[in-house]
Amino acid sequence: MKLIMAIIKPFKLDDVREALTPLGVQGLTVSEVKGFGRQKGQTEIYRGAEYHVNFLPKVKIEVVVPDDLADAIIDAIVKSAHTGKIGDGKIFVLDVDRAVRIRTGETNTDAL
Amino acid sequence: MKTLLQRACWALPLLLCTFPAFADDAPKLDSGDTAWMLSSTALVLLMTIPGLALFYAGMVRKKNVLATMMQSFIITCLVTVVWTVAGYSIAFTNGNAYFGDFSRVMLNGLAENWDKPFILGAGTDGAVTNTIPESVFMMFQMTFAIITPALIAGAFADRLKFSSLCAFIVLWSLFVYSPIAHWVWAPTGWLNGIGVADFAGGTVVHINAGVAGLVCALVLGKRLGYGTDNMAPYNLAFAVIGASLLWVGWFGFNAGSATAANGRAGMAMTVTQIATAAAALSWAAAEWATKGKPSVLGAVSGAVAGLVAITPASGFVLPGGSLAIGAAAGVGCYWASTWLKHLLGYDDSLDAFGVHGIGGIIGALLTGWFAYGPLTADKDHPLGVTIGGLAQVQTQAIAVGATIAYTAVATLVILLVVGAVFGLRVTQEEEREGLDVVLHGEQLG
Lengths: 112, 445
Prior knowledge:
The structure holds two protein chains of two kinds. Chain A is of the alpha+beta class.
């Protein structure tokens, strides 16, 4: 099993979700996060007072999938979250040791 | 029935003949005027709560939102009581040229005259007979007394102790607002005597509050982290709603200052709308040209600047003049709030001085230039009492200078007294934590 963690632009969330459900993704977790990358921050000006905002809002998607689905899902996220402009985000893939569905006690791929 | 009617018809002319003086001379309450002034009073109260409360709260950080709204709210309550006890009496009774007398302390006398037309300055040469009862006049003026100190709060936001706020407001209302209102608006007041044109409070309200704000900002010092920390507003949507409510309420403020539902009120409303729009556009345009983007905060701040500047002029100027006053106020207040403030290095948190002080000065002086005589014409002065020109600008300048000087000194003295008794600022730790939880034990979720 793989944990696919994608940091994307907030307004791309729905596109990504629509791209993933046909591939058999049964559920995912979304969080609102802040951070910086090459996009750096942005400057805000309020009545002449300039503030450099270092951390920009992003959305983090976490989805755990069977190994054989991982590549297709990563491709789908890249395609659906892509704008071509700086700040599109990143995807990280991690190995997952175990998964348990709390309601039934099913484990690993059965629990996904 | 018929005979009764016939008798009544007979009697009617007799009655009129018997009391000709009553029919012709005695002033009467006018239900239309009274209705408009009741409405105006409610509109002006709307400017402070929730208008100003939202406008200011929208510009502070999340940890100070409730404390900022509380300032407007509690000032409304405090000044209501102060005005009832003595403020109204000091402002609007005859007294001398600088201070009213105490004949209306605890609103004494209102009961006897509750259904009679109110004569301002009764028994003096400049007496003004109104067609509304004194209760309505007193209430209308009370809402002005409320918003003026509430405006100052923009300068000391984020750092003043609540106890000090309460003490400061009570003293300031009694010893600064009421006397200046007396100078300008009581027929016996000395600025009224030299012919200053201040329809709705350019000097009394805005220069007064703006300069007091500047003194507060200087005495209190900068907020912790000013210039280094991110002090971006928590919720500018509040500020947009607040400024919009100010705009709507201001029709009561300016058109209501005619104290009647008449042509002058209509013209005051017209020029208020035009100047406000012009100022919002000119601030946004200036910002667009110099900073690259026309900000939402800039547009609404410009609108408030225009409302401030047209305040003394409404009731004296025509649409053309109001367009010029608005445009000048938008650019002038933008310059004061973004450039002058940083040049001089004071932390007027929400630009009480930059918008109200500077806007008030621009409006008060330009009123002298653009005043259209016929709006103030009466049977003794067919060309008008207040006629635009250099002489009137000079009179306006005296009023502006006197207001600035008195307010600056009196505000400083009050701050020193309050500071000695209560201390002015919260501790550094409390300021970092935020006034909501420190002063009021509450916070936004």
